[in-house]
Amino acid sequence: MIETLAQAGSTNTVLAERLRAGHAIAEGTWLRAERQTAGRGRAGRDWREAEGNLYASTLVHPAGGDPPPHTLSLVAGLAVHDLLMSQLNVPQADPGNYRWLKWPNDLMVDGAKIAGILCERVGDAVIVGVGINVATAPPVADRAVTAIHSANPDNSNTAAVVLSDLARTLAGRLDRWRAEPLSTTLAEWEVRAHPRGAALTVTDGGERIAGAFDGLAPDGALRLALVDGSTRIIHAGDVELET
Ligand SMILES: O=C(O)CCCC[C@@H]1SC[C@@H]2NC(=O)N[C@@H]21
């Protein structure tokens, strides 16, 4: 079920308020805002409002036996990657040619961020908020935005059409997250992300750590190989991909 509001401060906040007010919200429910006036990004940043872009949130109710809830952040990234592969009409059989994921779940196309994901715990639920620049993006990602538009001829409706595709890809990824070993999700994420050895700089609080991507740890944390030969396990932080 997709509910669309003409305007919201933040779709994540609206869903969180409803949960806290005791509403029973089923998995598969999505809330989209045509305009978002107080969008929130990771690390307390704002998420910029631009007309026509996609702003939407859903939620997951992790159950006993599911993989750890924090790994939903990677699952959501995979779902958006699946969506972009279908929107940009690239060969589904070859995801390794489209290394668009940056840990934990930024989507970088042509070096520009085309989508961001904000996962937040509210009680036992995890809210998954997704912003996709389907109408306006940083200039270097214009090619991707143009491709999304040409895949959706009714441009006035692009965000709504893209969201129904995203609802499908996330449902599929959640089914697999529950049914398959977590290592399968992590391996699929790695195929679609910066390659091992890619130079990354991680900022965590005031600390900046430079190193090379050394794959994911078994719990989905980032392994960063440092110049002194040691490995740092990163559970949270901002990652810049050095080019
Ligand atoms: O990359 C990031 O910093 C995450 C951005 C997440 C933005 C989306 S837009 C829909 C949902 N509502 C919010 O306030 N944030 C998320």
UniProtKB/TrEMBL annotation:
Its EC number is 6.3.4.15. InterPro entries: aa-tRNA-synth_II/BPL/LPL (IPR045864), Biotin_CoA_COase_ligase (IPR004408), BPL_C (IPR003142), BPL_LPL_catalytic (IPR004143). Signal peptide: none annotated. GO terms for molecular function: biotin--[biotin carboxyl-carrier protein] ligase activity. This is biotin--[biotin carboxyl-carrier protein] ligase. Residues 1-182 form the BPL/LPL catalytic domain. One of its GO terms (cellular component) is cytoplasm. It catalyses: biotin + L-lysyl-[protein] + ATP = N(6)-biotinyl-L-lysyl-[protein] + AMP + diphosphate + H(+). Keywords: Biotin, Ligase.
